[in-house]
Amino acid sequence: MTEPLRLLQVGAGQMGRAWLAAIRADPDVELVALVDLDAGLARTAAGDHGYRDVLVGPDLTAVLAEARADAMVNVTIPEAHRATTIPALAAGLPVLCEKPIAPTVAEARAMVDAAERHGRLLMVSQSRRYSPGLAAFRRLIARIGPIGTVTCQFFRAPRFGGFREEMADPLLLDMAIHQFDLARLLTGADPLTAGCDAYNPPWSWYAGNAAAEATFVLAGGIRFTFSGSWCAPGLETSWNGAWRVSGAGGTAVWDGDHAPAAQLADGTVLTGEVGAEPEGIAGSLTEFVRCVRDGRRPDSAAARNIVSLAMVEAAVRSAAEHRIVAIAEVLGAAP
To answer: Are the beta carbons of 187 and 179 closer than 8 angstroms?
Structure first.
């Protein structure tokens, strides 16, 4: 029997607690250490999730030296990802990092370079990739021929408090990267350009732009349009968004929660068969463990996922400068 992968987690806030629960539920991993600048918060979070004997502390360097971990899960805020990930990679640990990998492509590139320099896996937890409904949706999309148009609507009204409500572009930076990343996954096409209008409705409780309309041109002439808001109460979409994909042979739709459906050009109606794949961060964790053990490079490895972050950065730049932005411009700007 394979021994559980020994994990060090850094970050014990709201999302950190979700990861503690996911780790507790996965027999293939074992939490051995928890780091947070607020050591009291970390001790409380560990105790609340049944972890009585793990190493807890505020100093990542000290815990890295003492914990005997096999890998690290990074659940700090995006601005801290670089400073916490690179020391772990240098210490020989593969890292599973919450999205977005970093606030900017330049910072993400530095993290990717560190992973390659130290020969360790750096994977981004794009948790929305892990959904039985999404897997069924992808199977239906394969039935409708070459894709021409992809649209996603995302309208919700969460009140998080904390850093999200102070961000300059909370919807684009913290949420839309999920949908942008899924557009890449669903189409298999790289983004070429971005055009975006970001704004903040008068009733918004966010300091920055909580709504946006973005259109991307992808390779092969595919258009992906995202329309969303984080201050849209009433008739909310799922957290995955509401999707429509049109191709030469028909159209497929998915509401993000239930089984997807499609209608082919000949009128045939199809319903997706939803399986039982691991979902959300549990799915991310499962894939990370498999990749650490067998050396496989996941689709959401940081070197690949940086393109999804570039879509976000290009959209933010487009909205600020009122112009179409080439993805290559953003990727090329990173040292």
So the answer is: no
